[in-house]
Structure to design on (113 residues):
């Protein structure tokens, strides 16, 4: 099989960093459990399976709001959907297609028909 690597290229054997990441994950989960109702947590965990980057952005947004006291009670599933829409608008990527046409010595423009 393959070797398990840490996110930022560190060797996998540093226990203090692993413990710190584990503690941080526990704190995040505790805060999210306090601010989200059951349906909203289920939706967020489903989102994390499909789009982990977007789920992380929503989690960060919720934790920041909780730390600054901007959340009144638990966030419902509908509230989470609204937050998802806000985050999606902020992180929306514009897709552009650029055609690079190669110039060849024997181009179609010079062809005689």
């Amino acid at each position: 099989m393959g070797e398990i690597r840490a996110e930022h290229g560190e060797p996998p054997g540093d226990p203090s960093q692993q413990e710190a990441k584990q503690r941080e994950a526990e704190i995040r989960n505790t805060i999210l459990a306090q601010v989200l109702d059951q349906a909203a947590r289920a939706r967020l965990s489903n989102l994390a399976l499909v789009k982990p980057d977007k789920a992380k952005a929503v989690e960060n947004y919720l934790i920041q709001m909780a730390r600054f006291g901007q959340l009144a009670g638990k966030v419902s599933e509908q509230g989470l959907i609204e937050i998802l829409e806000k985050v999606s608008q902020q992180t929306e990527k514009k897709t552009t297609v650029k055609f690079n046409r190669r110039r060849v010595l024997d181009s179609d423009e010079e062809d005689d028909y």
Observations:
- Residues 26 and 32 are 10 Å apart (CA to CA).
- The radius of gyration is 23 Å.
- The chain is about 60% helix and 0% strand.
